[in-house]
Predict the structure.
Amino acid sequence: MVKYGLDYTRCRWILPLLLGIGVIFGIIALAGWGWLESQTLPYVLQASLWQICRRPDQGGEWNCESLMGYAWGRAAAATYLVGFLLLVICFALAIIAFAIDTLRFNFIRGIGGLLFVAAVFSIMGLVIYPVKFSSEVEMSGINMFSWAYGFGWTTAIMEICLGFFFCCLPNYEDQILGNVKPTYFYSSP
């Protein structure tokens, strides 16, 4: 990507594409039912970011309760949702930044900083949820944090990594714009 510059049409959209994938993973985490599940038979517990469902035995009806009745449930949902909204804003800003013919490198660095803020909020929600859930909600059997919770962590890790890319990209401004003369390592005898 640095060799051809960001003007190279196939490389220009890699970072916004990765942000878009992060947005999709965030949607899966917000909507997914697999934040916490029973690991062994009988499968009697299933939870999302928004509610918890229990059933008395293997064939019984699921009884669901909202986690928004708990202060920690509202805090976990709010902080993760703020991180997700900041990620969506960064995605929109990245599309705008890379659609302009002349890149504004300070604008790109600002997107990186905003991604770090989004990562902080996401991680706060992802830490509040298991700590308070396991201490305040009565659970039976062996339970595990599952796939949707993993998508939440994947989104947070992508926010951190892409934040580094967006912040470091302006350091290579001359290479990207093609303003550096090539150096040759051949010496004549």
User: Anything to note?
Assistant: The first strand starts at residue 36 and ends at 38. The longest helix spans residues 105-136. The mean pLDDT is 83. Residues 57 and 65 are 17 Å apart (CA to CA).
